[in-house]
Amino acid sequence: MKKSKVFVGVANIAGTAMHVANALRMAGYEASSYADSTHAYGYGSDREYFSFKISPKMKLKKLFRLFLIEPLNAILYSFYFISALLRYDTFIFISVYTFFRNHIDLPILKFFGKKVSFIFVGCPEMDPDDPINNDGEIECAICKDEDLQKYCLCDQPQKKGALVRKIESYADTVFSIKVSDGFLNHPEKTMPFYVISKPAPGEGMLDKFNNTEKIKIAHFPSNTLLKGTKTVLEAIEKIKEKYGDRVEFIMERMPNSELLKKLEEIHILIDQFHAIHGLLSVEAMSRGCVVIARLGKWFVEERPEIPIVNSSQNELEKNLIKLIDERTGLKSIGEKSIEYYNKYHHPKAVGKYLGKTLNLVGE
Hints:
Layout (H helix, E strand, L loop, with lengths): L4 E5 L6 H11 L3 E6 L11 E2 L12 H27 L2 E5 L10 H7 L3 E5 L19 H4 L3 H6 L5 H14 L2 E3 L39 E4 L10 H15 L3 E4 L5 H8 L4 E6 L5 H8 L3 E5 L2 H6 L6 E2 L5 H10 L2 H17 L2 H11 L6
Parallel strand pairs: 1-2, 1-4, 2-3, 4-5, 5-6, 7-8, 7-9, 9-10, 10-11
């Protein structure tokens, strides 16, 4: 049989396009990642599409966008699309973004017999009125980011729902979880997606637990409101009062390459307080960290082996004290974290899963 050729893009949210393409290659498939912009945290891609952009300071920028920039970009992306159409037989799109805003590329892809899949990542697909997304501390229940709401069409739920269902009608496979499938006509047909991160550079990720005289705790929020950073800082202040120099707290913004290196020395990573974990939790587990995050009951039932310390914001201080006082258990959780990562989130494991699910032909 002819070997599958897989396109992954054009969005690269949290490095998903890059990670998926790498995972497929590690599993023996031919795949390339494409991105329409440079990622803020340094997640790369095999190729970045050039497009014309407008400076926020430019006068009459709306007119420039409508009558100059958008037509020029439409020409560029028509070329990119035709090139991909001729080269690839399988298309994996990240979130709701394809080559064109009106998704005219989807019926064309189906006309030429291409396989089309979507990987849902969260906010761009979530139904803000779905009860599961208003469960206490989850994003939709606490989000006050009006710019993000507007960008993700949360302020226009009917339009957003129509967009998601349009995508569903052309997709052979949709990878999603419950928080992202509320708009779908057939959520029962979705397949789970396992977040991917780079494996550790070598052995020895658990050596940091051999010396726990000083416990290193970290929190790396991409959005301080949605990540519950205020609660984290309040809890850490109390922890510092109790333990003094026996605890070191790290919170700063840095490129992903630096963050992965930093995780090698961190004992406890505090991620977020929604109903699922994010990419950061997976990156931390791959480095043997003890991860704290809030997980919904349904998520734990779906993934019973998960070693993350399940914690609400109100329970954070109590759980930190327990982990710090019972230091002998830290290494055990760190070991389980690496095992879980290797089974469900290692690029090669996810690549095999995606290849089997999509009936790809590899080496």
